[in-house]
Specification:
It contains no helices and 21 strands. The protein is mostly beta strands and 208 residues long. A hairpin with a 4-residue loop joins β20 and β21. The radius of gyration is 19 Å and the shape is elongated.
Length: 208
């Protein structure tokens, strides 16, 4: 960007690639050229010299913004996951997922599947249509989730950790009644977990 030392009070999130930057701010999703101009305009916003496109959105979870090859996806506080076309901002689909309502989700999306971890359920949606591919409900509220390629690793507050296949949701392995974790890596074969008491532990799925 051209323009230095520009500060805004309004929180925003951004997802960028070489040819586009998407920004979720003030209930708006918009895209700008990475080579464009930025300048201060008022107390809490920036002025974009030329937007590529803009779309109005309602009550989004800013941290959920994810840029795919052909789309921009995000979750909203009313429990929806939505997709807009990357090149013109047109809404492609919105799917209501109850687990996302009121609980900030973890978005684990790429061009193969839009995986969303909600309150106690993990779902996978088709990127092109938003159709439900699979859904897995944990036994307790989810405490951590991560993804690497074709594996999603999910932990819940009851100490259950599962590795799920992204394509079909099949369970690859499970550790039941283990420890409560607050963060977990995405290595489906042997992930590392941060426990609620501050330890870092390598998860061995074979030690069950």
């Amino acid at each position: 960007f051209h323009g230095e030392d520009i500060h805004v009070k309004q929180r925003a999130s951004a997802a960028a690639a070489d040819d586009i930057v998407t920004i979720l701010q003030n209930g708006s999703l918009f895209a700008i050229d990475p080579d464009g101009e930025l300048g201060p305009s008022g107390e809490d916003r920036v002025e974009i010299e030329e937007e590529l496109w803009r779309a109005d959105v309602e009550r989004p979870w800013r941290s959920s913004l994810t840029l795919l090859d052909a789309a921009v996806v995000y979750a909203t506080k009313d429990g929806s996951v939505c997709s807009h076309a990357r090149f013109d901002g047109a809404e492609q689909w919105c799917r209501r997922l109850g687990d996302v309502a009121g609980t900030e989700p973890t978005m684990l999306a790429d061009d193969a599947a839009v995986v969303v971890s909600g309150r106690s359920r993990v779902v996978a949606l088709e990127p092109s249509s938003g159709a439900m591919r699979w859904s897995v409900t944990m036994d307790a509220p989810i405490s951590a989730a991560a993804r690497e390629a074709d594996t999603v690793v999910v932990a819940d507050r009851a100490g259950d950790i599962r590795a799920l296949d992204v394509a079909w949701g099949d369970q690859r392995w499970e550790l039941a009644d283990w420890v409560t974790v607050t963060s977990i890596s995405a290595d489906g074969a042997a992930p590392y977990a941060v426990t609620a008491d501050g330890r870092v532990i390598r998860v061995d799925p074979d030690a069950r």
